[in-house]
Structure formats: C-alpha cells, structure tokens
Amino acid sequence: MLENKKQEAAEAFLKLLDIMDELREKCPWDREQTIDSLRPMTIEETYELSDAIMKNDMLNISKELGDILLHIIFYSKIADEKNEFTIIDVIDRLCNKLVYRHPHVFASTQVADAGEVIKNWEQLKRSEKDGNRTVLSGVPVSLPSLIKAYRMQEKAAAVGFDWEERSQVWDKVHEELGEFERELSAMGSAVSEEEKTKASARAECELGDFIFSLVNAARLYGLNPDTALERTNKKFRDRFTYVEMKAGESGRSLKEMSLEEMDGLWNEAKQTE
Description:
Layout: H1 2-26, H2 28-32, H3 35-54, H4 58-81, H5 87-100, H6 103-106, H7 114-127, H8 145-158, H9 169-189, H10 193-220, H11 225-249, H12 259-272
Helix pairs in contact: 1-4, 3-4, 8-10, 9-10, 11-12
C-alpha cells in the first residue's frame, strides 16, 4: 500500500512538472514571471495557508498547500532556465539536510525528548558550511514582529540562554509592566511638546519590552503567542460583526448607539458562541 502511494505521488509530481513546462512555454503571463515578481504572491499564498490552518479547514489546507507547491516548482523552473539550480537540487538538498539534522533517526545519536532534538538541530545548523554565522541570523528580518520575537527566543533558548525555571519569567513580566506604566504616567504629566515626544518614545520602547516578556512567558508555557493573538483577533471580529449586524437590523448605525447598547449586543454575541 505504501509503495503504491509513493508511485502515485511520483506520477502526480511528474505531471505537475510537465504542466509547469507547458505553462512556461505557452502562457504569456506564466512566461513573463520572474523570481522577484513571484515573491509577493508567495507571501500571500503563505498567509492563505495560515488562515486555512487556523480554521482547521482541511479542504482549503490541501488547496493552499498545492498553491505553495506550485510556487516551489515555479521558482525552480525559472532558476533551471538560468542554469542556477533545478527542482532536483532543491529536493536533494532538502533530503541531505533532513538526514544530517536527524542523527537520532539516521545515525546513533541518542535524544531524550523533542527539546534535545531542537538543540541538536540548531547546533548542527551552525556547524554546516553554509550555516548561520550567529545564533539569531537564521531568523528572517522580514518576519512579523510577534513571530520574530518568538523565534529569536526559541533560538536563544536552544543554546542555553533561558530561564532556569519558567516561573521566573513572571518577575520580568511584572518588572516590564511597571516600567511601561511609569512611562505612561510620565506622558500624562509632560507639559511641553518636546517632553511629550520624549515620554512617548520611552513609553513605546517599554511597551515593546513588556510585549517581548509576555512572548517569552508564552513560549516557556508551550503557547504560541501569534496563534493566541490570531484567535483573539478572530473572536473580536466575529463579535464586533455581530454587534454591527444587529445595529443594522434595528435601522441604526453604531455611531448612533450608546456604549451601553453596544455592550449589550457584545454580550449577546458572546452567548451565541
């Protein structure tokens, strides 16, 4: 059964390569695409896949994975035309990397848990010829800030830069919250525009430190802050949309309603979940 699935997968993959060749030759739009022109579309496809995963929409996860695969094939086709690399190079390098970074599977290395796997992965990654020169250099600068903070903290922890006990992180969270609150107070007491500007900049800096410490706490407790915030975003969107819909049904706009009336509809929305 497994061999049959592998054969079917190989045939499907070859079919996709043939289709890509034909599109590149015969379709004006596909023919004019470059690696640079594909980049923003790849980013969009990645976020669409993320949306489908958040919704646990397996049908659309399958669809969006197909779109991502198309982009992989597309980039490889363009590079092949320029004699840079081929899809075979992409796959071979991936296979070699997976084998090399899983010595506990393909060699004799022993690991106790997933945490040791991650540490070994990072150490092996830095030892590679084209590996990251520093611990944090593997974190893309263009990542969204929340995800970037989480990934930097993960990589730092993988080399031992972490709290000895996860409960210790709460002292840091409370410390950063206190510093943020003090700067907010300074903003309120500032008189001149110059003082207000400086106080605002300091408050923004402390807000960043506070958020960073919360991200760290989430990581230590095995929670992904980006996923958590996205679920809250969805919850807020659903509830606020309900309030707006109910206001519309009554023939009024939200601006015409009191806060108390909107709160009542908000609570109705919570009860419908």
